[in-house]
């Protein structure tokens, strides 16, 4: 008598059968992974079907009891519904208030509010290997391609790229949100293709996201506007990176936010990221802080000991305040997360800043204050940001915010907010576009970007003496001599007079204040009309 084991990819046992057929000499799976055939020593061929699969979402638990039968249990009232299918079930997914089931011929879409009348449509191929759901759409992968459907059964798009192989796509290499699809390229695992959900066409100029190392896992955040869409990725070194994929000026900028990360999952209702990092369970309450103020990111983390999760855990989902993790032995572990960050995200997204401040004062949590500081700066809400930074003891940043608030024009304020977030080129472009040449030069002087400051001054034939004066003062303060050839060249022909320089600076600032006042008056007149 032989024993037939069915095990997962992680080597934990699903089932054990001992058929009276002699030794099993060979086995083979069907293309959809739901049937198993075995060649036996007595000349028989045995067939097995995968059943007793389970899916959970909130208070619903669904079990595949037979090849063509599912049991739905509502744990709140213990109500049970039985779902019957014409053909055997190949794949299923339960999330976002919908159950999507594919058989060998059809796709069934159920709403968790009504289990009696599913939406049914025929499939081009019956070998569906992957289902991924979002709030508005779901994605199917079969042998013929990738298809995005609405929950009403309408085919929305079918993205394609050269060399695409759908037979090897899985949940690690495909991700979808309400507006974006991300697919890792198998031929070059450093490349991630990005598509628009509605059209199936590549985003922007069509260039894919390219990382410096092979990408192991990708995940798109699920909430917020398309312009703020972000993608998290884990590379071969198990480093976690975040990229803002739709910001044209910062498109495809990839920033590291974690190391030794094994698995990640975004929350289904707010842009909070969970992961297992080394031997710790980590939650990034506001991962977008890395694009606003990198110093804030470590202060927005929740960390817990995760030594009980074994060596290769896998986060199944992050729904509401609960993270579900499957350990290497197949058991499920649930971890609770504070509800306050989700409420704070909701307040920030709807500009309810007073409510956000009240929440932080009530919770008395430094992590929440750090999240609020980043959210307020991202939304250019300087008053709230000032309070939040003061609460976490960032005195220097409070002073800089006060400086920004006192600037005479909107363009200067915007430029310095961009500088606050470390975006020097964008800050310069903003000032130059507004015609504030001196302010752009002064920004580079303050940052000690002497070559760029001189380049701008020479190009626009203004404030060359200002740059030279500040450069001389800088060298005197540090007891150094000039060695830069360009500065030596211009020093010979330009006279430095601090009184004239100060007068020119005052004149530039007066012009800016006057123009800002004129713009303000025009705006108020337009509003009255």
TrEMBL record:
Q: Which domain of life is it from?
A: Eukaryota
Subcellular localization(s) per the UniProt record: Cell projection, Cilium
Pfam families hit by this protein: Beta-prop_IFT80_2nd, TPR_IFT80_172
Q: Where are the coiled-coil regions?
A: none
Cite the IFT80/172/WDR35 TPR domain residue spans from the record: 368-514
> Listed GO cellular component terms?
cilium
Question: Which UniProt keywords are listed?
Answer: Cell projection, Cilium, WD repeat
- Ranges for domain IFT80 second beta-propeller come to 52-340
Q: Which Gene3D superfamilies match?
A: 1.25.40.470, YVTN repeat-like/Quinoprotein amine dehydrogenase (2.130.10.10)
InterPro entries from the UniProt entry: Beta-prop_IFT80_2nd, TPR_IFT80_172_dom, WD40/YVTN_repeat-like_dom_sf, WD40_repeat_dom_sf
Keyword Ion transport in record: no
| PANTHER family the UniProt entry points to | INTRAFLAGELLAR TRANSPORT PROTEIN 80 HOMOLOG (PTHR24098:SF11), OUTER SEGMENT 5 (PTHR24098)
Q: Which protein, by its recorded name, is this? A: Intraflagellar transport protein 80 homolog
Originating organism? Coilia grayii
